Automatic annotation (TrEMBL):
Chain segments annotated as coiled-coil in the UniProt record: none
Organism: Sylvia atricapilla (blackcap)
Span list, region Disordered: 98-119
Gene: Pzp_0
Protein name as it appears in the record: PZP protein
PANTHER family reported for this sequence: ALPHA-2-MACROGLOBULIN, MACROGLOBULIN / COMPLEMENT
Record GO cellular component, one term: extracellular space
InterPro entries according to UniProt: A2M/Complement_sys, Alpha-macroglobulin_TED, Terpenoid_cyclase/PrenylTrfase
Extent of the signal sequence: none
Domain Alpha-macroglobulin-like TED: start-end pairs: 10-172
Compositional bias segments (type: Basic and acidic residues): 98-111
Amino acid sequence: ESVELRGTNNYFCVSLQGGVNDEVTLAAYITIALLEIPLPVTHSVVRNALFCLETAANQKENHVYTKALLAYAFALAGNREKRKALLDSLEKEAVRKDGSVHWQRPGKEPEADLPYQRSRAPSAEVEVTAYALLAHLTSQPAPAQEELSSAALIAKWISSQQNPNGGFSSTQ
């Protein structure tokens, strides 16, 4: 599925957005890309983008995927306060199972435990969990031991999602 950006002939694939189709998610993607270049947080475009993301981060209704993207964006920007607030919020929605941690789409039915069969999560769940992991590990100064312990539980779940060829169902 693709969606036209307002007033342009540019299209982007919604499936590349973890199933979330909104301006905040797209703004977070772009901000992350700018910070990974790396453009400094003092650059006017980055500064304005971060201001918009800060406003969006204060919304109570943000989707877990959006929260994970925002947490990573603020981690890259060095905004420890916003990063921590978003990670704390994500922590409340985390699924803990078999000594690992991951995130699911809200309202998803729990999967039945079938013997000898391990189902793989949808790509959006791999992506949201991977962004949460990046947010945990992207920290100045370096992540504390507690954060590294949390990251290890997240990494355990992500590695369990690999297919036999070592790849993932994720589109990213």
